[in-house]
Each structure stands twice: as C-alpha cells, then as structure tokens.
From TrEMBL:
Residues 4-236 form the ABC transporter domain. GO terms for molecular function: ATP binding; ATP hydrolysis activity; ATPase-coupled transmembrane transporter activity. InterPro entries: AAA+_ATPase (IPR003593), ABC_transporter-like_ATP-bd (IPR003439), ABC_transpr_CbiO/EcfA_su (IPR015856), ECF_ABC_transporter_ATP-bd (IPR050095), P-loop_NTPase (IPR027417). PROSITE patterns: ABC_TRANSPORTER_2. This is Energy-coupling factor transport system ATP-binding protein. Its main location: membrane. It is found in: Cell membrane. Keywords: ATP-binding, Cell membrane, Membrane, Nucleotide-binding, Translocase, Transport. Signal peptide: none annotated.
Amino acid sequence: MNTFELKDVAFSYSLDIQIFDGLDLTFDSRTTAIVGQNGAGKTTLVKLMKGLLKPSKGTLLIDGDSIDKQTAAQLSRRVGLVFQNPNDQIFKTNVLEEVMFGPLNIGMSRNEAEKAAREALRKVDLESKAEDNPYDLSLSERKLIALSSILAMDTEMIIFDEPTMGQDFAGKEKIKAIIEELHTEGKLVLCILHDMDFAAEVFERTVVMNQGEIILDGPTRDVFSKKEVLEKAYLEQPYVTQIAHALGYDESFIHESELINFLNKND
C-alpha cells in the first residue's frame, strides 16, 4: 500500500513568515481532497511532497523510506503533479510529443513512451488531437493534456492541483472517472481543491487547511458536517448540504442522489 508521510515538517519562505511548523500528516490509500483558501498552505505542501521545495526541519517518507535527499527529478518517477495552470507545464508544440516527454524523461523507450502517451490521451478523449499544437486547444483541453502527460508516466502517486477549474460538466466527469480508475489501480491520489461539491462527491477523505495548520481531517462526510469549523477556514459546505439545511434537514448529505432519495422516501 502506498503511503506518504510528513513528520514534524517546518518550512518558511522567509525568516519572519513560517508556513509550517511541526506539521504531521500521513496520506494513505484513501482518495484525499486538500481544501482551504488561498494562503492556507496547500500548494506549499504539495511542492514539498514533489521535492520542488525542501523543509527546514522534519522528514518526508514514501512507504516508510525517507526521500529527503532525493531531487524533484528523482521523485518524478514516483510522484506526479498536475499543475493548476497547464501553461506552466506544457512547452512542446505537438500534443503527442508533450505527453511523451515525461515517460521519455524517466527512461522509457520511444516506443513505450508513445504507447503510454496514446493510451493516456485515449483516457481523456483527446487521442484525435495527438498531432495538434496544444496552444491551439481550449484551456479545458490543455488541462487534460497536462493530466495525460502525468498519467503516461504511471507514477505511484498523483497530485492534482485544481483540476476542475475551467472544466465543464463533461470535463469534470472525465476527471472523476480517471481518479476512480487510479484509485482502483492502487495509486495514491491527492487533490487540491476549491470546489467543495467535487470534493464531497469524489473523495473518501478531506483535509482542511488554514494558515499552515490542519484544522479538520477525516472522512469527507464527517468533515463537511462541521459547518462552524469550515467557516473558520472561510469555506462553505457543499451545495447539496446547504440545500438540505435550508429545507430543514440536519442529515449530512454530500451527494445529490442522497438528498433526492431521501426526499422521495419522505414525500
């Protein structure tokens, strides 16, 4: 089972601004959403996990083995990060070559890399765009290309940074299906989100961050039932939860189907 542990981690961008101080957090096989407002520490956290930043104190472990001395390049074989802005990730002028870059960079042969890239593009329904220039495509499609480039590397762990931003319903459904498939394959899946509805619908566990601290951590249903604590982090409950409360029900609904079934039974 894949695990990622952060033990007594401290990090600051400057001497007078401490982001983390003694952070302890373990990610396991559960799909996990990491939520919080801008400045909560979410992006800093995943950059530490990806090796893009180094802690001033503490240790990071994958499956019990320290990765403190590994570079971001070395970690890229094990930890994939899908950036929030695909323009920060895409640099090739051909979609297939873009998706092949990561696999080639971790040692796949060109034939293996092309096979993996085409399969990744198939998963996001963009195989017909393989010969296009990524910058001729929409933002939604570029985000899916950036996702494909990480899928093609077949890493043990995948971190999504705001994957639903700029996506329509169909795009969100594709991402949901991919997350479910990765989970079924035994991969560790984390996601930074501002989309509380998507977090509630898709993820088993939710971690709420506020100013570098973990203020809630547990099963998603339990976390989103804590309205007062969420408000301290300037977060709202999922839309379906708010509707149920407005109708006078105290139950913690996190899926639309749950509320609909409940209303039908009590009609």
